[in-house]
């Protein structure tokens, strides 16, 4: 905004003191700390009019992540998208919501396509152009895992962002290797001796990414979009393979209210069920501390996919899910100590 | 420059002369020497301005190629057999996106049973994938076809698969004339993409297309192959003008002028067939050959012109559609339909899994075609006895066991010489 226009803008006396909250667009923080989305100069990489569900965590996470990467690279970004919700809801032919160089090939090959794009940019001497690959948890932890591991292992100059909504939501909510235990999906129905997804299954992709020794791995949620932006910005300051795993609630797949997306992401963090941390070269360098610790049941209850755990007295499996949260808290040092809040 | 060289190495040198910018491949026999050669050229600095990427799978290889080609780089890969199947999803994707990737296919059988030797099963598995498929007869032609392939692919913005017989060509040492860089540069201009993902002009590539436009997108893929039908002969004649060699084109004929019988085949077996024809001609047998270079696009009209009016047509396929028949035979039949007095194409399946195709067997085959034409497929040099024994064995008990192992056991007890 130029100064002439600024002078015409009415000033408003601020009534609410929000500093230090998670709220996005906080006008009390300094310019440099403000979200990318607060700027009129933002790239708006995913423009409005796409077909995501109301309250879609992935649409929100992707918008902040891609726009942060756009700011970090002065717009010199090529986005490679895996097949999935994000790809489908943004590009119903002949429309596209992407205002960024964007390419989609297949479900399981986004990381490899990104490798190829990065190689092309290198050979053409386009050092300024960076590559950003993205996909859902199915395209990342399952079908795209081979290509992703190859990209990590070669340390290709690609940032890969996984939007984890813990299942195959685009095809009708089936189980992925990121679906938590006990969760109802279309392929882990709440029938039989152990209703919902089986305990003792699944994988932690951030940990697997770390095992490749790549320069940067981080997790984030849509409850703290500043944190997500900061991590994307940091990732773009590094060359080599980088991975960010973003927890994105899915109202449709989780059976949750659209207005609860951000709340659920916060409860996942505050219960310790989803650890938010950063790692460099395979070593955890820091974690986001829990502010008000809550039992995991508080995170589970608003989600219909866990409703079977709370019918007629508390199911003993809630305690097993609590154990997972407790282990995360111990492993990633998630409890606030003196001075590290 | 003339040299005595292994086919894979001369092919690698030809690809190097085409100035590829990104090469990405996964090792699989018998393609490996080509990419090893290219890897060495990139590392040593002999091939400049080129990225060589080692990947975790063929699926990853072609996917990385999709990325680099979409980003505007001249892109090359190579594979064989199981590798082609492993990248199948990306094979269709590359052509659907209209990316002019050039891929060498060291043609090889597909398992099970696992078999690393040559036939055309892999190439045929992807014949409907939207790639142009050119078959080399010799290592010289492999060199020449690769140089033409980049120009062809980039002219119509569609991928090209150059099919080179595994081992028979890839591992054969032959006299090959590898052109000079300046000659290739004059023939093949730098890649000027019709579409490119670039932040300077941001576009979306790979959008979801529904029933409203999918037919039209596919129609245009076919339209491009029709364009290629016209372009391939032009490229071959331009190539001949510059390099002085007949290489490529849609098809070539050999001693067909007055031939009553015409054989149709693809790849290296044409050399053996030509020798057989020379011998049979000396005996007064009226026979000629059509060597099909371009299998996709399929030159229906040119083939029809070459075959109409003949008494006999014999198609030698090095693969077949199980439960149906030889793929090339079916396509030749298709070309001959509605042609007055056209001969019925006799189908011979030969050389599966690397079985040698000998002049003696071909001579017998062509004589039989004249004397006692057959219906359906004729499997050249099929061991009838072993097959009959196994069929009897399968009928005699429920748990008859694995066929491949049964046959091997029987063959080891009963030497093939018997």
The named CATH superfamily of the largest domain in chain B: Thiamin diphosphate (ThDP)-binding fold, Pyr/PP domains
User: Largest protein interface?
Assistant: A-B, 44 and 45 residues
Percentage of residues in strands of chain A = 5-15%
Structural class determined from secondary elements of chain A: alpha/beta
Could you give a short account of the major beta sheet of chain A? 8 strands, mixed
Look at the structure and give the mean pLDDT of chain A.
91
CATH topology of chain A: Rossmann fold
Q: Widest sheet of chain A: strand order?
A: 2-1-3-4-6-5-7-8
**Unreliable spans of chain A:** 14-19
Jot down its keywords.
heterodimer, A: 341 residues, alpha/beta, Rossmann fold, eight-stranded mixed β-sheet, 12 helices, 13% strand, globular, B: 418 residues, seven-stranded mixed β-sheet, six-stranded mixed β-sheet, 15 helices, 43% helix, 17% strand
Note down, in words, how this protein is organized.
- The complex is a heterodimer of chains A (341) and B (418).
- Chain A has helices at 3-8, 57-72, 85-90, 110-123, 137-142, 145-153, 205-211, 225-236, 251-254, 261-270, 296-300, 316-331, and strands spanning 77-81, 101-104, 130-136, 158-164, 216-221, 242-247, 277-280, 283-287.
- Chain A is 33% helix and 13% strand.
- Residues 14-19 of chain A have low confidence and may be disordered.
- In chain B, helix 10 crosses helix 13 (359-371).
- Chain B is an alpha/beta fold and 418 residues long.
- Chain B is globular and about 65 Å long.
- Chain A binds chain B through residues 75-78, 80-81, 87-88, 91-94, 96, 98-106, 108-109, 112-124, 129, 146-147, 149-150, 153-154, and chain B through 21-22, 24, 49-51, 53-57, 59-61, 63-73, 75, 89-90, 93, 97, 197-199, 201-210, 212-213.
- Strand 2 (101-104) of chain A pairs parallel with strand 9 of chain B.
